Amino acid sequence: MDLFQRCRDFKDAERVQAMGLYPFFRPIASAQEPEVTMDGQKIIMLGSNNYLGLTNHPHVKERSLEALKKYGSGAAGSRFLNGTLEIHVELEKRLASFVQKEVALVFSTGFQTNLGTIATLVGKDDCVYIDKLDHASIIDGCRLSFGKVRKFGHNDLKHLEKLVQSDGEKPGKLVAVDGVFSMEGDIFPLPELMPLAKKYDLKVLVDDAHGLGVLGEMGRGTSHHFGLQDRVDLIMGTFSKSLASVGGFIAGRAEVISWIKHKARPLIFSASPPPASVGAVLGALDVIEREPERREKLWANTRFLRDGLKSLGYDTGNSASPIIPAVVGEDMICFQMVHRLQELGVFANPVISPATPPGRALLRNSLMATHTQGHLEKALSAFQKAGKEFGVIP
Questions:
Q1: Apex 154 CA angle, 334 and 137, nearest 5
Q2: How far apart are CA 181 and CA 179, in angstroms?
Q3: Is residue 170 very low, low, confident or very high in pLDDT (cuts 50, 70, 90)?
Q4: Does residue 162 sit in the same domain as residue 271?
Q5: Of 274, 290, 306, which closes a domain?
Q6: What is the pTM of this model?
């Protein structure tokens, strides 16, 4: 068969585009603020991971500009050779201190962080255990490893234990999980994992992309939320959410990070994060430490929208974070709802199968600290109108 035949046969996107309901790659003409500009219109943004509202913060932009002026637009090489700048090292020290681990290592993207970490740590005689709803970067990191990959039911620790027992004695066992799950906003039950980790000598990696800046004291993440930072072996984080930039990092014991630093192909063979991006993260950390009230406002907004959606009759699942799903049912209804909400002045993200089980398509809403009550009231009014029009709510 012609290698490109499957490309020619792929018509799903064209069909939805022809219906005027295509909800992906929508261009935005402004910064990621509570309101954005699309097609010349102001739209309330409920689809951004800009949880603390820092992507357009003056101090964050100032730190970014300072780094750009000092170091230029790029590092012109990988971290392994000429591409490690002083600002990269400065950021790694700040991140290690922030999540209270010995050492941190910065990658160019969060996706690469999981790819490099998991594929480097898990060898051919090892086992890696992942939640079936883990992020794609964890799944792909497992695929790149030479270890045995075992999926357990979502947040199902009994299933995990059965898998561990069935594998018997192996040289190494890693459990890699999301701290906050990105589609429905529920939190992994870390306290229930710890006895199993001790009993079976499981090493634990928590992907805290959606927990950093949001959960725990000072926004230090899911591990700190549960007071388990000393018992979680590796904390992974991204810069593209609360930290207002792009990139990722892994933090843990010095000898483990040194191994990853000298073995991870996605680190060694990728260009370093641009100085401006690194400066923005440093600026975001400054603001997070100086303005704890941002987290308080984020959680107030989260409670307001979640309670409002529930009162309208929406199923919001087990969300325990600023990610709040509104279940709508079939995929096509989800596309129609996204289109109608945009007409009503609200941007929401569609989540369809296979990212969610068939018949459980949802609108993924995410809050910012900078949303006003007026923004959220208008959004709830749009959800009420659209939900009734499509029979999603009574």
A1: 75
A2: 6
A3: confident
A4: yes
A5: 290
A6: 0.96
CA dist 358 and 355 (Å) reads: 9
> Is 158 found in the same domain as 220?
yes
Cis omega (within 30 of 0) for bond into 189: no
Q: Which residues of 12-34 are buried (b: 16+ CB within 10 A; e: fewer)?
A: eeeebeeeebbbeeeebeeebbb
Token code pair at residue 272? 């370093």
Q: Answer yes or no: is 350 within a domain.
A: yes
The domain in which residue 96 lies consists of: 58-290
Q: Give the pLDDT band of residue 1 (cuts 50, 70, 90).
A: confident
How far apart (Å, rounded) are the C-alpha atoms in residues 369 and 146?
Answer: 42
Are residues 262 and 229 located together in one domain of the fold?
Answer: yes
Separation of alpha carbons 367 and 376, rounded Å? 9
Q: Which of 262, 290, 318 is the last residue before a domain boundary?
A: 290
In DSSP terms, 128 is beta-bridged to 149, 174
pLDDT in tens, 286-339: 999 999 999 999 999 999 999 999 999 999 999 999 999 999 999 999 999 999
| pLDDT, averaged across the chain | 97
> In whole angstroms, what is the distance from residue 305 CA to residue 44 CA?
13
Domain holding 309: CATH number? Answer: 3.90.1150.10
Instruction: State how far the alpha carbon of 19 is from the alpha carbons of 244, 337, 362, in Å.
Output: 35, 13, 20
Cα 132 to Cα 152: distance, rounded to the nearest angstrom: 6
> Residues with catalytic annotation?
182, 210, 241
Tell me, yes or no, whether 339 lies in a domain. Answer: yes
- 34 with 151, same domain: the answer is no
Give the residue from 176, 164, 225 showing the smallest Cα distance to 205: 176
331 occurs within a structural domain: yes
Q: For 25-52, what is the mean pLDDT?
A: 97
